[in-house]
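Two records follow; treat each independently.
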Amino acid sequence: MAVTMWWLLLLITVVVVAFHSASASVIESTWEVEYKYWWPDCKEGIVMAINGQFPGPTIDAVAGDTAIIHVVNKLSTEGVVIHWHGIRQYGTPWADGAAGVTQCPINPGETFTYKFIVDKAGTHFYHGHYGMQRSAGLYGMLIVRSPKERLRYDGEFNLLLSDWWHQSIHAQELALSSRPMRWIGEPQSLLINGRGQFNCSQAAYFNKGGEKDVCTFKENDQCAPHTLRVEPNRVYRLRIASTTALASLNLAVEGHQLVVVEADGNYVAPFTVNDIDIYSGETYSVLLKTNALPSKKYWISVGVRGREPKTPQALTVLNYVNATDSRPSHPPPVTPTWNDTERSKSFSKKIFAAKGYPKPPEKSHDQLILLNTQNRYEDYTKWSINNVSLTVPTTPYLGSIRYGLTSAYDLKSPAKKFTADGYDIMKPPANPNTTKGSGIYSFPLGIVVDVILQNANVLKGVVSEMHPWHIHGHDFWVLGYGDGKFKPGVDEKTYNSKNPPLRNTVVLYPYGWTALRFVTDNPGVWFFHCHNEPHLHMGMGVVFAEGVNRIGKMDIPDEALGCGLTRKWLMNRGRP
């Protein structure tokens, strides 16, 4: 299919830029985290705000800068942490912001200082990583610029995508943890930069007599959409991040093509599409050329993929400066059919590394095959990996390893492969029962590990869900995708070893497998988990420890470990 090639004039061969320059700056800020009444979708709710803002403030840095963020917990009764999604935290694993893994939650009234180098240029974001606080709106954009940017464009916009429930996160957590489980349902609204519409529609005038009225906004309405104002015949970079709790999304800009140039902070070989699929935890940059009729306005639409859409589209408008129409003249783009998985796979398989990126090592030293299943544990509904549902301990793994506190978690590692060779991934599990555990996978420093994520049918019915998996502290190469059950010794031959993309988040498609490869080059303890908030809450994750001997020599701030057994150890330190 012929496509326009205008982007060739905009893109010079890209090389990786990730270094600490001599002219690096310090970005320092104090953030107060508290609950606020808000109107995210034109209906009043409660959000987690930072310094009174929802979403939180955007961090704008240059690769090599040092970020110092003093987080003040002004919540009355619960802890809080913040994860810097996409930042690898070389040398500062305690700043990763994963409660129970790298630090203790920040207690109410207390302050914790995150200090780390933003090592990697690209589009990133941050979010809460304690309980389900991301679902409550604790998130914001984190933009890291390259001092040697090779993309050429005239302006840029940030699009932070999220989903929104009217039920509080505390009610959601209780429902998911109940026996029997009470499913929280689909989100009531989708938000673009924290703004959506639940009880009205911007496009209702195309459907007179429909269920919803046309939205009318007042000045300073918190749910009023942010319009993207553009000049004709310019090139704009759209930085897109998905911090959804559950929804997989599709984004389209009416009348405009999108050139995908970045994924998860890594440049990719440019390719042109009419819309993009984006899963929770993923980020993209796309280039958009404003070459449509400048007298019109155009919809930007975001809809649900991968789940039966019971949530209406989120909408905003691309507005040419000289446009005279008060509204777009056509209905919004229709989101592709929610269960057209082949279309989604086609998009994923178009993503290749840009020139100049390192190829993966030819062979791996270790392999994990992680079977994703939905199970029961004493009548609780759980998600499990190789029949273990993860329970994160109260003492952070990082502190337990640092101080040799062997009773803080299960010392036995989970199985590297699921032992039931006859497991039928196409049917509900014959034995629905699972176990709980807090064991971790421990790797020596400097080896190559392959991870095969294997999907399967859920507990009931004929259903296999999409799972976006995110790794902390690393990027991995996405070696390939496949249908059905992974065949060791056979499917490895289909891997892309020439130009696989580097990512930190990847989707696992229904009834299929996804293969990854990474190098254990970052001493620390790192979460690897499904980025769907309810799934992680129900146990869908594993933990990697790397370079344990180096962790034992780390100078970890005491305030990161002031809970559980590490608290007791620190209190008794120096006593006879």
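The next record belongs to a different protein.
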Amino acid sequence: STLYLKFVEFEETVNSFDKECKSKDKLVSKPQGNTLRDSKTRGIQKDLLSSFDDGDHKVFFELWTENIPSEIKDTDTEAQSLEFYLHIHFTIYPLRRHPGRHDRAEFEERISHFKQYLETRGAALSQTTEFLPYYALPFVPNPTVHPSFKDLFQDSWIPQLKDKLKPFLSVTLKPSNTPRLMNLYVSSNAVQQLHLQLVESDRRITSYVRKFNKMQADYHNLIGITAELVDSLEATVSGKMVRQLDCGASSMLRASIAPQKSKEVPMLPSLDYEKLKKDLVEGSDRLKSLLLQALRWRLTRSLPGEQRDTVLQAFISNDLLERYSTKQKTLLHLMRSKNKIVRQYMARLINAFASLAEGRIYLSQIPILLKLLTEALRTEEKDSLARENVLVALQKLSLRRSQQTAMIAANLIGWLVDELQDSDCLSDYTLEYSAALLMNLCLRTKGKRKCAENARHVLKVLTDVLGHENHEIRPYVNGALYSILCIPSVRQEAKEMSVEEILRCYSKEENPDLNRQIEFIIKQLNSADEEGPESDDEEDEDDNDEDLMETDLDTEEVLQPQPREPSGESLLTTEYLGIMTNMSKVKRKSTPLSQPSVDEPLQRPVTPSSHRNFNVFLAQGYCSTLYSGHVTCGLFSFKVDHFYITRSQTIRSF
């Protein structure tokens, strides 16, 4: 304590403290901290050098781990290089000690440790030319005679390595003059600050990833639209039919966003699924979380195409989620785990399955699934990642008619309307998927009738949320309004609430697409049509086979592995390796559903990601085919050389 007081220059306090200690015959503290630390540091240094000379790798690396600061070991290139050569020194020590009679058993043990190092901490140096040859060391039967390793057995090699080790230890283990009390205080504050920064960084990263994905989709859409318009201009110049040409500038534009031909990729190793499922049900909460994370990563980090299809088919054919199980507790019951990380990572895995067309088919065949998801939706905390993933998974599953029917029966429409009523408290992501899910359910006759049971409340919420600052939700809100207004009782309620006047307030905005959609809604509101016949035929599924894997499925990972704790693919392939089987399956080709024009509200089930990607189709569909240099386009207004394109007008030469 006196060292700390002196360090912060409280000299009078130190003097008073010493004076009072003497008056009460208490032991007066002496500033011996540095001397003791110096002595301890010299002892550690001596033990490290001694174990280096004796070839005692266990003692050496235990001291190395405990006393060399992590920030130096993990970031300093000199420290990483020295550690690499130290591992080589201890690995070949038995071969140097007895050149004539090698202690093979001890050497094999050390080789095993060296291989483990190369796969973990040493992996970072595998791209460095200097160290690359030594990655072959574990596979060479007799390194003493191999030309690549002759320098390691020269008499000068160990002294040279020791000459590097000594100054490194002297500098690194040099004691600080800062009192330990101060170090503890500073470290504690620093950890808290770093934790807060990490949480904030994760939030920003998630937001940026979503914005980037949207910008990337918009960029691809704009290129497609531009290419279409270039075709039209070229056709106009040559006097040919608009859609006859597909060359020149437009071909170059399309080529710039065309997917690259995929190279041959390896299939991931097969797994022991019975052992996996057993540990997922009976293992510790941490093991369950790590396994759920690793399985999700297998889906999200595999390459789109054959590799990902093979992974998914392996999951399905081995019934990973135990669709056919008769057990009382299955893997899906982890959604009811008392551990919130287990629940979150189970929800993330289900969301990953729901992101793939074949995965949605598999999920829709599990009777208990919807009950567990809707239960989690109502019980999880409002801003939790588990709840968000459950909501997004349900929205993707709502592309399938059978799941729509079950969701409507579970009164999910009422829950969604109440959720949207408090829209200002929702994240943009939750708001968008909630609105899109509600619209998909409102497209069904049963869904419309469910809304009609409380029409005033539903109409109030939808017209309010239409004015939300997040304009991404407007297509889904408009689609829901348009759908439910085909019910006469809902139309009557809307007229009593002056919904037309409310909608016309929104149509005053300078947003032509929104204005046209509102006109369609008002036309529906004022129609005299009776409710159409029941249209809930379950034979035809609406799912359009589209994969919807977002890049932000793996963001905000709260589970981080401990040092030397296997995770991800490493965990799966070291503990759960199975017999290699060929699980590849030809993927069904996607059959896009017909969509309404940009003028009309959405009238088919969509997800936010698939809706954004459909803009190219809409753009291309709005360019009509005419002759003699006249092209109608209902999208943009811009000038190209001596041609002028204006909304709903023709291209003419000035």
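Discussion point: The beta strands are 632-633, 638-640, 643-645, 649-650, 652-653. How would you locate this feature using only the token line?
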